[in-house]
Amino acid sequence: MRTIGVVTVARSDYGIYVPVLKHLQQTPALATWLFVTGAHLEARFGLTVREIEADGYPIRERIPLHLDGDAPAAIATAMGRGVAGFAEALARSRPDVLLVLGDRFDMLPAAVAALPLRIPVAHLHGGEVTEGAMDESIRHAITKLSHLHFPSTSAYAQNLRQLGEEPWRITLSGAPSLDNVVGLPRLTPGVLADRIGMPVESPLLVTYHPATLQRESSAQQIAEVIRGLEAWPGQIVFTGVNMDPGNRAIHAAMAGFAARRPNTRYVENLGSAAYFSLMAVASAMVGNSSSGIIEAASFRLPVVDIGPRQQGRQHGANVLHAPCAAAEIAAAIRQAASPAFRASLGDLVNPYGDGHAAERIVERLRTVALDDTLLVKRFCQWAPS
Fold first, then answer.
1. N or C: which end of the chain has fewer CB within 10 A?
2. Would you say the pTM of this structure is higher than 0.85?
3. What is the dihedral of CA 321, 323, 326, 329, to 10 degrees?
4. 3-state SS assignment for residue 238
5. What are phi and psi of 205, to 5 degrees?
6. In terms of DSSP H, where are the helices of 282-370?
């Protein structure tokens, strides 16, 4: 039986993985091991490893990073601990293929540790562009450490070829999270109200993370976002921040604003079902999360994308861009929430796929030959047409 190791670092990637995990479990020739690290094991991020346990997926190894604060040096130190921890974990529990996702600083150590152990790495969401975050560099670094690639759009598949990846290694899968949009049941209004702490009526959904390459500090960034939200007359629901440098200032500002403003809630971890249920009823989404770029189009949900964090990423016509400045944010929210803008999205097609990514990914993982041809990478010169 072939064993697929799956590395998950946070609620964000775990929700994307779920359709893939379901297909893996339904494939008799494959066994699944989870390697859990990052925010999943941190109490202040909600110990979301409990969700994995509740779902019943087999956790093979837990690799704590012991993150001390959110300063850049603390993040770099945690990355070093991650490489050492994954080296030990992968030596103990050696999968046939290691599946990683995206561009997180706590995902990179797994791919680094797998290299000298000759464990082939399969990478989801490679080739994408996010010019305003250090994730950009990490994503491309993981690409060069990986042996199989599952890009979410044809444009990103082309980017992988430009990075020198051989075409046979690239399977255009689409975004697995869209499988969730198609298949994940929505919560009833009562259950959603219990989860958020209030009945929801066309709220703004706000998800904001540090823009790690922006000159302004996280405290300055979130202060502009909060000022841009102050004029909104209706409900606001904030979701939790990630582990990037500067996350504590953002958490404090969002939680503080929610505590003092009526009809506003801060929820550390909604989970995929509640998050998508909220996207289905929201007036607009505000922030700089990839979910606004990738999943929101499937709901024809207007999005105000703030600042440079997602700059360069392919997106649908539902996305409006605003600099990280209060007046521009407020104006973009008014436009996004207007009936005319919402009506203009009636024929919107999500560029990130058709909701069948997981089956393409799992079939490739099941059938690829695990030999030296897979492990020995050759740089493929790209010839533009």
1. C
2. yes
3. 0
4. strand
5. -105, 120
6. 290-294, 326-336, 339-343, 357-367
Strands 121-124 and 97-101, bridge-based pairing: parallel
Closest residue by Cα to residue 206 from 283, 318, 120: 283
Q: Which domains does the chain have, with CATH numbers?
A: 2-175+353-375 (3.40.50.2000), 187-343 (3.40.50.2000)
302, HSE (Cβ side, Cα atoms, 13 Å): 21
Structure tokens at 349: 């097609």
- Region of residue 314 (left: phi > 0; alpha: psi -120 to 50; beta: else): beta
Q: Across the beta sheet with 236-239, what order do the strands follow?
A: 264-267, 236-239, 204-207, 284-287, 303-306, 319-322
State pLDDT tens for residues 168-207.
999 999 999 999 887 778 899 999 999 999 999 999 999 9
Q: Which amino acid is at 378?
A: R
Q: Is the pLDDT of residue 213 over 80?
A: no
